[in-house]
Amino acid sequence: MNWSALSAILLGLAVMLGAFGAHGLRGRLDAYSMGIYEKAVFYHFIHAVGMLIVSHLPRAGALSPSWAGWVCGLLLAGILIFSGSLYALAMSGIRILGAITPLGGLSFIAAWFLLAYALVRFR
Asked: Is 30 exposed, middle or buried (0-12, 13-18, 19+ CB in 10 A)?
């Protein structure tokens, strides 16, 4: 998979969703829901940048492509589950969606710890 290209797409989507939140949802969502939406955009953006960086580590010789693929896959899962559930929660108000969010957080945590392990092991 071309993780760099996918990261670039995710970054573009993060900017679009952030702009949509700032301009299209302001005044339509209450402060609580707006805060949830903004948190979704923030985590989406940060982890897409992380994915872009990790996708380049094999080119720098710091990580094998297979390890980078696992880390990027976990980061993608985290963006989809964590940020996706928060986007849905903020826009729908269905609070049970918040129960899914920690699974995305665990995916983020697993990705970063796997990256640390892989960087030590690859060395």
From this structure: exposed
> Could you identify the residue written with the tokens 């996918």?
6
CA 108 to chain CA centroid, nearest Å: 8
pLDDT tens string 22-73:
999 988 999 999 999 999 999 999 999 999 999 999 999 999 999 999 999 9
**Nearest-5° angle of CA 48, CA 35, CA 101?**
55
State the burial class of residue 85 (Cβ atoms within 10 Å of its Cβ: 0-12, 13-18, 19+).
buried
Spatial separation of the C-alpha atoms in residues 89 and 71, rounded to whole Å: 26
3-class SS of residue 113: helix
Angstrom distance (rounded) from CA 8 to CA 80: 15
pTM, full prediction = 0.95
The secondary structure of 21-87 as a DSSP string is IIIIIBTTB-HHHHHHHHHHHHHHHHHHHHHHHHHHTTTTTSS-HHHHHHHHHHHHHHIIIIIHHHH
Domain boundaries, the chain: 3-122
